[in-house]
Amino acid sequence: MAKKTREVRVPALRRADDVRLSGLAPTGAGTVEIEGLEVVVPGALPGDRAAFDWRPPMPGGRRGLAEGEVRILEKSPLRGASPLERCAKAGRCGGCPMACLRYDAEIELKWRQLLKDELAAAGFDADALCTEPLQQPEAARTGFRNKAVLYPCRESAPNGRGRFGFFRAGTHEVVPAEDCPLAPAWMHEAARIGASLMDTPAAGEEDLFAPYDESSGTGSVRALLMREGAPAAGATRGERLVTLVLRERPSEAAVARIRSAFAALPLEHLSFNVHPNPGNAVLGFEEGATHVIEGREAIETTLEGLSFEVRPETFLQVNTPQTPRLYERAFSLLELSPEDGFLDLYSGIGTITLLGAKRARRALGIEIVAPSVACAEVNARRNGIQNARFLCGPVESVLASDAFRAEAAASRFTKAIVDPAYKGLASGVAQALAAIGLERIVYVACGPKNFVRDAKCFAALGYRLVRVEAVDLFPGALHIEAVGLFVKEAGESDT
Ligand SMILES: C[S@@+](CC[C@H](N)C(=O)[O-])C[C@H]1O[C@@H](n2cnc3c(N)ncnc32)[C@H](O)[C@@H]1O
What we know:
It is built from eleven helices and 22 strands. With 495 residues, the protein is an alpha/beta fold. It has three domains: 61 residues, CATH 2.40.50.140; 155 residues, CATH 2.40.50.1070; 192 residues, 3-Layer(aba) Sandwich (Rossmann fold). Strands 9-8-7-10-11-12-13 form a seven-stranded mixed sheet. A hairpin with a 7-residue loop joins strand 5 and strand 6. Helix 3 packs antiparallel against helix 4. The longest helix has 19 residues. It is globular. The termini are far apart. The relative contact order is 0.10. The mean pLDDT is 92. The site of S-adenosylmethionine has 20 residues, from helix 6 and strand 17. It holds the Pfam family tRNA_U5-meth_tr. GO terms for molecular function: methyltransferase activity. This is 23S rRNA (Uracil(1939)-C(5))-methyltransferase RlmD.
């Protein structure tokens, strides 16, 4: 019997001859309301007047989308003097959709749309709670990233040059960007050197460094990872690490070429990582996947006079100048004193735990990534900190474990910082924290929407949100970090 097929009608294109955009989509594209629908207009920004064709969403969809040429009739006053002022690749490489805007306009938009509107929609008094965002200092608006991951491509044959860049938003198409302005100059040089390894070889020469092609599973080079530590006291620069990620173990000849290519660059640590499995993970994580060519598999960085070991696969805030300012705000709101037992959830390599241990009686960090916990333990020892412990595992399970109960009995936790990944707290975590009876909780959030969801949960558990600060850690991107302070309401048993 012939199968019945249901015809899906694609809505017909419509024309917008002259509309002024007012909002921003999560991709950083401008949006406008037409016929009661939100229409996303790639290439246009809030404040632009534009003409374009657009298509309503398919049944069940929420947003319409502009298609074809978007003609800007009048530029938004929020744009910089030139749309390419802050980066020649803005809006194309997928990294910094907001870099066409003036920085003050970018901050205002992100702060309002990502944080204040979300808080207000959830019933919080956003104007009373939110303080002016802490902006990236002007002198540090370029070259501030301490980590970059670039992906490979090769220009067309016959003499195609190798290139490194970022994926165009929503695709696997690489936009070459060795000279990303967010990365320091030495990373530009490292990216050019790495890219030159992938130049099409001369006839008869072996192609040792072809870019990896996920669809066919062929090629070798998957990514270039670069990291830099903050300089130690008295040093003029931080330690530098380059890791070339390859699909398979390279030959001796290939390793020799990597070594000699990077020899001209002042670099402490050079390695390659073997990552044979399909998928989006940057590094291969199997035991022994990383092979050191020079130096070590880790760099050292510093924060508030403490020294931290960071491995390629462990988390570290990427914005070197803003990170101490973010932590300063978090600790200032938390008001730790030497009597406090301090809990740090989602503790990474122990940065916040150890900074807290200096201020509190005892500190405990909880983190899921085992190499991060191993770094955190090394970091406690190398800084001579003896009042900090770490537990490894998902926060949601560790909080219910006997090991945690034993720590809680010894530490009598009074204050906590939670710094989860974008998705926020797992279900049950806010309840577990409330059950401990903490006086103050500071929530450091890279996902403001999920922060607001969790704030409602804390409010229902008797924790009042008393302040929300925003710190810009991601100039050019549609992201802003929020720092929220929750204070336990005085209940009947407390009065
Ligand atoms: C935003 S980072 C914060 C790290 C650290 N606080 C810092 O400032 O460097 C979030 C951390 O949470 C960890 N993580 C993610 N899910 C987790 C979970 N369910 N339980 C514990 N840690 C988790 C990640 O590995 C990462 O180190």
